Amino acid sequence: QVQLVESGGGLVQAGGSLRLSCVGSGRTFRSYAMHWFRQAPGKTRDFVAAISGSGNIVDYASSVKGRFTISRDNAKNTVYLQMDSLKPEDTAVYFCAASLTGWRRGDFWGQGTQVTVSS
């Protein structure tokens, strides 16, 4: 089991950037594929990005490809989401998730961090 804590959310103007961080507990962090999901008010929780345990495989939703970058530092038990060229439609609560059982899914979840992009 892994516990996850996100940080780095906030308010930013359209076109700006934010970097989210997610710190995981435990010594098996590198065993997990790590993901970012997001949920806007009244909408479903949607996949944003994923990275394999070693970091050599990444995957993005089409809506963020070319603007967001996922990375990880296993020595620090941390996964990052660099978000550039932000748009108002990126406004959502962003969740970090760890998975041992599949891709684009989460077995363990963080509490979420709010990202608000103003126009």
TL;DR?
The protein is an all-beta fold and 119 residues long.
Task: Give a description of the structure.
The protein starts with a strand and ends with a strand. The mean pLDDT is 96. Strands 2, 4, 5, 6, 9, 10 and 11 form a seven-stranded mixed sheet that branches. A four-stranded antiparallel sheet has the order 1-3-8-7, with no helix packed on it. By secondary structure, the chain is an all-beta fold. The protein is globular, with a radius of gyration of 13 Å. It has no helices and eleven strands.
Strand content: over 45%
Order of helices and strands: EEEEEEEEEEE
Structural class: mainly beta
Level of helix content?
Answer: under 10%
CA-to-CA gap between the ends?
Answer: 40 Å
Helical element count? Answer: 0
Shape type: globular
Supply Rg: 13 Å
**Total beta-strand segments:** 11
Q: pLDDT average, as an integer? A: 96
Low-confidence stretches: none
Summarize the main sheet. 7 strands, mixed
Keyword list:
119 residues; mainly beta; four-stranded antiparallel sheet; globular
Topology summary:
Blueprint: E1 4-7, E2 10-13, E3 18-24, E4 33-39, E5 45-51, E6 58-60, E7 68-73, E8 78-83, E9 92-99, E10 108-109, E11 113-118
Parallel strand pairs: 2-11
Antiparallel strand pairs: 1-3, 3-8, 4-5, 4-9, 5-6, 7-8, 9-10, 9-11
